[in-house]
Amino acid sequence: MKITITATGVMTTMDGVPVRVWRGTTADGVDCIVFVHRIAVAKDEDASSFERDLVEQLPPAEMIPLRKVLR
Looking at the domain assignment, is residue 24 inside a domain? Predict the structure, then answer.
């Protein structure tokens, strides 16, 4: 399965761990929600553009209870 995800400004917790909520769409066009705790680049890759893009996409986030995210 392939999913394209876009960061949101929403943070919540899952199992006591803070996660950012991302909006996703599968290759077949099905919308989904993705909860990301960590994201990283392989250590042998140049991470400079990834880090720059990540900072632009991830402004300070608002914490929202999980029950409000999963309506």
Answer: yes
Residue 69 lies in a domain: no
User: What sections of the chain are H helices per DSSP?
Assistant: 48-57, 66-69
Instruction: Name the residue type at position 71.
Output: R
Around 50, how many Cα atoms within 13 Å sit in the side-chain half-sphere? 8
Asked whether the CA dihedral 47, 9, 63, 3 is positive or negative, the reply is negative
Total domain count, the chain: 1
pTM summary value: 0.71
pLDDT tens figures, 1-42: 999 999 888 888 888 888 889 999 999 999 999 999 888 889
